[in-house]
Amino acid sequence: MDREWNDSQPIYRQLRDRVVAMILDGVLKEGDPLPSVRNVAAEYRVNHLTVLKGYQQLVDEQLVESKRGLGMFINVGARNLLLQGERQKFLAEEWPRVRATIQRLGLKPEELLNGATTRRPTQTAEEKPKP
Known about the structure:
Layout: H1 11-24, H2 37-44, H3 48-60, E1 64-67, E2 71-74, H4 78-105, H5 109-118
Antiparallel strand pairs: 1-2
Helix pairs in contact: 1-3, 2-3
């Protein structure tokens, strides 16, 4: 996990988001334990109640379960649940902006599929290396 925090949202929320990213990326898998609240608090120099609040959000979202005396573990189906939610969020919040940009630029589907791997930006005369 990244050690830097930003001021745009509370640290407990950023912590929750980092764990979610780790689940989506496959770093944390179903049944895996979360690092202990004490370890995270010490390592990232945050209050243990902040870590606990972030973890509690994961419990409330049914992504993690707490096993008394053992710790917190990723629930079965957590990644699929997250993927479903993240897909809906992307389609509702980000896709309209992306689609508008695609239309504004007049991009074709084949350009989108091939563009990232085969096309390079064209250089202006000033940027081209001189012999």
